[in-house]
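Fold this sequence, please.
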Amino acid sequence: MAAADYLCQDIYPQSAAFFGAMGAASALIFANLGSSYGTAKAGIGLAHLGIIHADRIMRGIVPVVMAGILGIYGMIVAVIINGSMSTGVGTVSKYNSSAGYI
């Protein structure tokens, strides 16, 4: 191998792309798990609110909508991470280890 290949492997290690993809996957997974849990808890509260105070149901829909938006935020983060990952010529990844912290 040439000296340029060693330099390229030091700047862009192969494990960086793996951890970047795992970061995108975990952003989707945990955001949607939190969104589904929040929607379920808010739905239970909304059902209880409908029994106790039927006139306040529209006020109780706000937490359900906000919990649904949390899943969309996770998807946006995953798309941003995935958009910063690119492959160079051949199989060389152009995603360095510090890109996940920026």
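The first helix runs from residue 3 to 11. DSSP finds three helices and no strands in the chain.
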